């Protein structure tokens, strides 16, 4: 399953809303879709699993939605620490593929 | 806190072998499936291999099948990745990661190690 993310880069200011898209080449159960955040020099961090469930300790400004082939990660109000790269991943069928990522940078 | 620590990376010539280890602490290691994920410089993560909690179920990405072997020792709380016939395109940071839940198959990866760098170059 190939995952495509858009846009490649999102330039926004702190306090703005970020909407990131992930599209799958075939339908996947929403149970098997995750979102990760990665900052330079760090491992990815799990934000969302099951398309819409926040992982432990993740602030509620992060939310996930979607089904079938189209999924969305929304950051309601960007904080300075949210500027990073975001990856979606499907884990329902091997190989457990990641998308190419969306970089959220400061405008 | 729950922790995964990788070791064993380094510089190796093409065609040679390397074994990575991932030591786990502060969770019931034998209850969770585990993964290896790699990330080439400037690229996104690429899932490499999965092993179920009891080692009865293993999966690999096509590019490493027949060259890499994932294994685990539940008595030592340690995950391994034996990498043979290494190629320059295997150069990456290698992370181990833990399944979030008690699923026999795949799950979201809730805990990641800090990574170990593998460089394949002559």
Can you tell me about this structure?
The complex is a heterodimer of chains A (107) and B (122). Chain A has 107 residues and is mainly β. Chain A is 0% helix and 53% strand. Chain A is built from no helices and nine strands. Chain A has a six-stranded mixed beta sheet, with no helix packed on it. Chain A is globular. In chain B, strands 2, 4, 5, 6, 9, 10 and 11 form a seven-stranded mixed beta sheet that branches. Chain B has a four-stranded antiparallel beta sheet with strand order 1-3-8-7, with no helix packed on it. Helices cover 0% and strands 50% of the residues of chain B. Chain B has 122 residues and is mainly β. Chain B has no helices and eleven strands. Chain B has strands spanning 3-7, 10-12, 18-25, 34-39, 45-51, 58-60, 68-73, 78-83, 92-99, 109-112, 116-120. The N and C termini of chain B lie far apart (39 Å). Chain B is globular, with a radius of gyration of 13 Å. Classes of the chains: A mainly beta (107), B mainly beta (122).
Parts with pLDDT < 50 across at least 5 consecutive residues of chain A: none
Q: Helical element count of chain B?
A: 0
Strand content of chain B: over 45%
Radius of gyration of chain A: 13 Å
Distance, first to last CA of chain A: 33 Å
Computed Rg of chain B: 13 Å
> Which class do the helix and strand fractions of chain B yield?
mainly beta
Order of strands, main sheet of chain A, comes to 2-9-8-4-5-6
Q: What is the subunit organization of this protein?
A: heterodimer
Q: What general form of chain A does the structure show?
A: globular
Greatest interface (CB-CB under 8 A), with counts per chain: A-B, 26 and 22 residues
Strand content of chain A: over 45%
The strand count of chain B comes to 11
Mean pLDDT across residues of chain A: 96
Q: What is the makeup of the main sheet of chain A?
A: 6 strands, mixed
Helix content of chain B: under 10%
């Amino acid at each position: 399953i190939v995952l495509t993310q858009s846009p490649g880069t999102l330039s926004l200011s702190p306090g703005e809303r970020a909407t990131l898209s992930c599209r799958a080449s075939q339908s996947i159960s929403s149970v098997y879709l995750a979102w990760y955040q990665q900052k330079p020099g760090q491992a990815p961090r799990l934000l969302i699993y099951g398309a819409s469930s926040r992982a432990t300790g993740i602030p509620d400004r992060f939310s996930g939605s979607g089904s079938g082939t189209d999924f969305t990660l929304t950051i309601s109000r960007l904080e300075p620490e949210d500027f990073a790269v975001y990856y979606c991943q499907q884990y329902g069928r091997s190989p457990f593929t990641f998308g190419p990522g969306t970089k959220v940078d400061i405008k | 806190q729950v922790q995964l620590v990788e070791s064993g990376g380094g510089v190796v010539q093409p065609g040679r072998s390397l074994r990575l280890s991932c030591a786990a602490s502060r969770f019931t290691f034998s209850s969770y499936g585990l993964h290896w994920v790699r990330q080439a410089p400037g690229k996104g993560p690429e899932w490499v291999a999965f092993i179920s909690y009891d080692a009865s179920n293993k999966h690999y990405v096509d590019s490493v099948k027949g060259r890499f072997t994932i294994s685990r020792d539940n008595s030592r709380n340690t995950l391994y990745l034996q990498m043979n016939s290494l190629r320059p395109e295997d150069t990456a940071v290698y992370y181990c990661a833990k399944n979030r839940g008690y699923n026999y198959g795949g799950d979201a990866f809730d805990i990641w190690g800090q990574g170990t760098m593998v460089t394949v170059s002559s």
